[in-house]
Design brief:
The complex is a heterotrimer of chains A (303), B (291) and C (253). By secondary structure, chain A is mainly alpha-helical. Chain A has 14 helices and 4 strands. Chain A has a domain of 209 residues. In chain A, helix 2 packs across helix 11. Chain B has a two-stranded antiparallel sheet with strand order 1-2. The chains are: A mainly alpha (303), B mainly alpha (291), C alpha/beta (253). Chains in contact: A-B, A-C, B-C.
């Protein structure tokens, strides 16, 4: 069904600007589906995922531009490094709970952001870095239309993988970690390993999308790794609905479109965005999709 | 050598004092509601911005400062009443998003009410530096130390010597007991937000002559305050003060001896390092989960 | 043969002994009950045996292997499973998924096959779902096969924990107050379930306040008071023991 929506959406696109926004929405959606595995399903939190996204982007930029590595290799290599980094920091960090975990992940994100900003010899500093199109086997992804289809296919693939995962032994173990860690431990779930696993998976998702984003945009600045971007990603997940793959997707789409719409009322953009974040969370604490689903059930079922 | 060190120490203590006040703000709200208020930094910004603009428009300094504190407290009370209170029983993540939403909202409002420029406040008692063993100390820094000291002593008195303060502390340990002595949880919550906003405003006001302020100034200050609170152990007031000073001094030393570009990173490096070994901060309660 | 041996086990919390120098053993195939007044250290003892807490001193042997200091999931892999006095249900999941997590150790837990939904994973998952439904019936939860755990009543959740623990195919099952908070009918049903579990060859260690149940189904009883062993023996022996009557039964009589 998702494939149909993605395929039919362009019918309403009158110019490439729509494709551009569409690609960004789907990129965010892929990151959020990954992040939702961590936040919604395994019940952990990360306020630093933009850092992993930025590392993916800069990894690709540095490897392709400075070292002439083919884009696909650069992307996979960056993802591997980010995965390794997430694995190394994940072990000690994920022992923390609640606000301490929020603090630690926030710290990691900010440190990555500052490093990218400061090491200007490698990253170009605050001025950013340019890079080329994504090409592979003599085929180059160019233009917003082509990126739209590529990201559409990737999004469908991601959703399929995520749906597979949550309904598998691994996915149930992850959700059990959320439900009760000690309850999961006594039936043989090594909870700390599973937390690290999902942290790594979500970081790798973010890194790969970061790489793609860099190639698509052709230009990146350290601010893609800022605290605000991390918050944006978490907000997409929570706003759309934690522990709901499609919720995360909807959250990503809404929060990508919103600033585009609010750009019309430029001055009030931040205030309206803040008010929407607060309002949704106050009145629909479970997020948009789960709240809507349950109220539809209540109306329709009448049980 | 020593003069340079002393110089860094002075600047570290100055910012450390502000972080400590922000950290105390986090601790007070956390104690009464288990909420981490990511909008704490905005209180600092509101205090600084409103006092600066009021003075600039000709309001006498003492009056401007009092008004700024009131405005900040009003913002704190409004935040509690309209955003936190209705979401009392939500998940941690949900409340985090609400307070972040609130901070974005307040920043947006500040940008609209004021502008995106930097604002300053005249120093309270002149700008002639004081020489101390080869280092120089700005009189305003003395104001920062003195005001923070007074605020901390006043808080100590409030929480240990007044009925209401004791009840507020009591609420964090035992909700029922607090109700028994006639203190409503709602009132405590409201008071904790007002008090934290006041602390933020005081910090923002005294530091504005040194650092200047703009609508975005609250972001980093808030995060540093959060680091201070976590470093000391969430909910531990004394810990937040020590945490704030550690963060401030470490930052100043790092930017002096290592690299000023990494000044903002150092707080987080320390935090990560401490949390790796002490998952509940330096002075946090080491609870065993009951199952 | 002793399946589980506890040797001079102690646990202190800030200078207070929750369990002090406790020694006893559990015979394979028995229903072994631990009794004692509130605060006698029964739950602490369970937490020590199952690896939730680390002992201050002393040791625990399971199948003659030293297990104190091991993690709960490692003990689960050796065949030890438990339920909790304060429910540790996965409220974010369906009832049957709770039980399926119980069979975690017996499924294909590799990441990639799970991610790609390989046939090997799905086939085993289907079998697992069927056998877990069987376990739910075994503990009398037939009508909750499709329910969300969050929508189930307290009594049913107690049994759900038993089903989850059984799904791990344990050799020994530790039940922490399975009948607490249940009415008389529900207690009797739990009683039946425990007997059937024992009959299937699983050793049961039981902490319970319901004396009628304990006296009725136990092969062996250890009575605790203030973390120390007060008495042990068959139900008949323990019932006659003057210390036990004083410290525990007396208070109820």
């Amino acid at each position: 069904m998702l494939a149909i929506i993605i395929a039919s959406a362009p019918l309403g696109f009158s110019n490439t600007y729509f494709y551009d926004v569409g690609v960004n929405a789907m990129f965010n959606a892929i990151v959020c589906v990954g992040l939702n595995l961590l936040i919604g399903y395994a019940g952990q939190i990360s306020l630093g995922h933009a850092g992993f996204f930025a590392l993916g982007a800069y990894g690709s930029a540095i490897l392709t531009v400075t070292y002439g590595v083919p884009p696909i290799v650069a992307m996979l290599l960056s993802a591997a490094v980010v995965g390794l980094l997430a694995f190394v920091v994940g072990r000690p960090i994920l022992k923390l709970k609640g606000h301490y975990l929020a603090m630690a992940t926030l710290g990691i994100g900010i440190i990555i952001h500052i490093v990218l900003k400061t090491e200007s010899k490698i990253t170009g500093g605050p001025d950013g870095m340019s890079l080329d199109n994504f090409s592979m086997l003599g085929f180059t992804i160019m233009g917003d239309r082509m990126w739209y289809w590529v990201s559409g296919v990737l999004l469908v693939l991601t959703v399929w993988l995520a749906l597979n995962l949550i309904d598998s032994p691994v996915g149930r173990a992850l959700r059990a970690v959320h439900g009760s860690e000690v309850g999961a431990e006594v039936v043989g779930v090594d909870t700390s390993s599973y937390k690290v696993l999902v942290f790594v998976v979500s970081a790798v998702f973010a890194s790969i999308v970061g790489s793609l984003f860099a190639h698509k945009n052709g230009f990146i600045t350290p601010d893609i790794g800022s605290f605000f971007h991390s918050v944006e990603l978490v907000t997409m997940v929570v706003l759309g609905g934690m522990a709901s793959i499609f919720g995360a997707l909807i959250g990503a789409v809404i929060l990508t479109l919103l600033p585009q719409i609010l750009a019309a009322v430029e001055q009030y953009e931040a205030m309206i965005l803040g008010a929407i974040m607060m309002g949704t969370m106050i009145f629909m604490p479970k997020g948009l999709l789960p709240s809507i689903v349950s109220s539809v059930k209540r109306l329709g079922g009448g049980r | 050598m020593f003069a340079a060190f002393l110089q860094y120490l002075f600047s570290g203590l100055t910012s450390g004092a502000i972080y400590a006040l922000a950290g105390l703000g986090f601790a007070i709200i956390y104690n009464s509601s288990q909420v981490i208020n990511f909008a704490q930094g905005e209180f600092i910004m509101i205090g600084g911005m409103s006092s600066a603009t009021l003075v600039a428009s000709g309001v006498p300094m003492p009056l401007a400062i009092s008004l700024a504190m009131l405005i900040s407290m009003a913002a704190g009370i409004a935040l509690e009443k309209f955003a936190i209170e209705p979401a009392r029983n939500s998940d941690v993540v949900t409340i985090i998003i609400i307070t972040i939403g609130a901070s974005i909202f307040m920043r947006g409002a500040a940008q609209l009410i004021w502008d995106k420029e930097f604002h300053s406040l005249p120093a309270f008692s002149g700008e002639s530096p004081i020489a101390v063993m080869g280092a120089t100390l700005m009189p305003q820094s003395l104001w920062v130390f003195a005001v923070s000291g007074v605020v901390i002593v006043a808080l100590w008195w409030f929480f240990n010597r007044t009925m209401f303060g004791k009840a507020m502390l009591g609420t964090s340990h035992n909700r029922l007991a607090a109700q028994l002595v006639g203190v409503g949880v709602k009132k405590v919550l409201l008071a904790s937000f007002a008090l934290s906003a006041l602390l933020g405003a005081v910090g923002g006001i005294v530091v504005t002559p040194i650092t200047f302020t703009n609508y975005e100034a609250g972001i980093m200050l808030g995060l540093k305050g959060f680091s201070a609170a976590v470093l000391g152990g969430l909910g531990n007031g004394g810990g937040a003060i020590v945490g704030g000073l550690i963060v401030g001094i470490a930052e100043a030393l790092a930017s002096g001896y290592l690299s000023s570009a990494y000044k903002d990173a150092i707080a987080f490096v320390i935090i990560l390092f401490v949390l790796f070994f002490m998952p509940n901060g330096l002075f946090g309660k080491r609870g065993t989960d009951r199952v | 043969m002793s399946l589980l041996k506890v040797e001079s086990l102690s646990k202190e919390f800030g200078g207070v002994h929750a369990v002090e120098n406790l020694t006893f053993s559990v015979e394979a195939g028995h229903i072994h009950s631990i009794i004692g007044p509130n605060g006698a250290g029964k739950t602490t003892l369970f937490n020590l045996i199952t690896g939730v807490y680390t002992p201050s001193s002393g040791r625990v042997l399971f199948q003659d292997r030293l297990v104190s200091g091991m993690k709960p999931y490692e003990l689960a892999a050796m065949g030890m499973s438990r339920t909790f006095q304060n429910l540790q249900i996965f409220f974010n999941m369906k009832a049957i998924e709770n039980v399926m997590v119980g069979s975690h150790l017996h499924l294909d837990r590799r990441f990639l096959p799970s991610l790609l939904r390989l046939p090997t994973v799905t086939r085993k998952d289907r079998e697992c779902r069927a056998s877990c439904a069987g376990l739910m019936e075994f503990v009398g939860l037939n009508k909750y096969l499709d329910a969300d755990a969050a929508s189930m009543p307290y009594g049913a959740l107690k049994r759900l924990e038993i089903a989850r623990a059984l799904a791990a195919k344990p050799k020994i099952l530790l039940l922490d107050e399975p009948a607490a908070g249940l009415n008389a009918t529900e207690s009797r049903e739990i009683d039946e379930v425990i007997k059937r579990v024992a009959a299937s060859g699983i050793t049961v260690v039981l902490v319970e306040h319901d004396m009628k149940m304990v006296m009725g189904i136990s092969d062996q009883i250890t009575a605790l008071d203030y973390g120390r062993k007060l008495a042990e023996g068959t139900p008949a022996e323990v019932r006659e023991n003057p210390d036990v009557v004083n410290a525990y039964l007396g208070a109820h009589a």
